[in-house]
Amino acid sequence: MPDISITATAVTAAINRGTTTAAAGATITAGQMVYIDAATGRWLLADCDSATVPARVPVGMALNGGAINQPITVKTSGDVTMNAVLTVGLGYYQSPIAGGVAPIADILSGDLLVLLGFAKSTTVLALDITASTVVL
Predict the structure, then answer these.
(1) Is the pLDDT reported for residue 117 higher than 60?
(2) What pLDDT digit, counting tens, does each position of 120-134 carry?
(3) Distance between CA atoms of 89 and 120, rounded to whole angstroms?
(4) What is the 3-class SS of the chain, one letter each residue?
(5) For the chain, does the N or the C end have fewer beta carbons within 10 angstroms?
(6) What predicted TM-score, i.e. pTM, was given to this entire model?
(7) In which band, very low, low, confident or very high, does the pLDDT at 14 lie, cut at 50, 70 and 90?
(8) Which structural domains are found in the chain, ordered by start?
(9) Nearest to residue 81, comparing CAs of 102, 95, 63, 99?
(10) Buried b vs exposed e over 16-25: b needs ≥16 C-beta within 10 Å?
């Protein structure tokens, strides 16, 4: 099963929890999962099988896209609305594809298990990032 396909223009956030803003350290698209690079203070794409340990656990989901050095707002928790690609009640995880959001079936041997949240509907992900210590 492939990562979910998020339409960047469909990504919006409810005002029920936090957002934060910083500059992009790479080209980022709305709907991608990101983390802050400690050396530069810029957003980079999270990846659950990255050789860089901090990259494995995202801080949140980008609400807008941008090129390097452009400001990106990130939803750190709470409801995120996107196109109708979710299955109600299903948990979604940090993908081994940089920035991706995946169902559990996409998590492979050697990947860190990072729960991003559960689908409240076919369009709303209740973002509540929980990093485990489990590597499959």
Answers:
(1) yes
(2) 999 999 999 998 776
(3) 6
(4) CCCCCCCHHHCEECCCCCEEEEEECCCECCCCEEEECCCCCCEEECCCCCCCHHHHCCCEEECCCECCCCEEEEECEEEEECCCCCCCCCEEEECCCCCCEEEHHHCCCCCEEEEEEEECCCCEEEEEEEEEEEEC
(5) N
(6) 0.90
(7) low
(8) 8-135 (2.40.300)
(9) 63
(10) ebeeeebebb
CB 8 within 8 A of CB 65: yes
Token pair for 18: 């936090």
Model confidence over 67-109: pLDDT tens digits? 999 999 999 999 999 887 899 999 999 999 999 998 988 888 8
Question: How far is Cα of residue 85 from the mean position of the Cα atoms in its chain?
Answer: 15
Residues across the chain: 136
Q: State both tokens at 55.
A: 């990259």
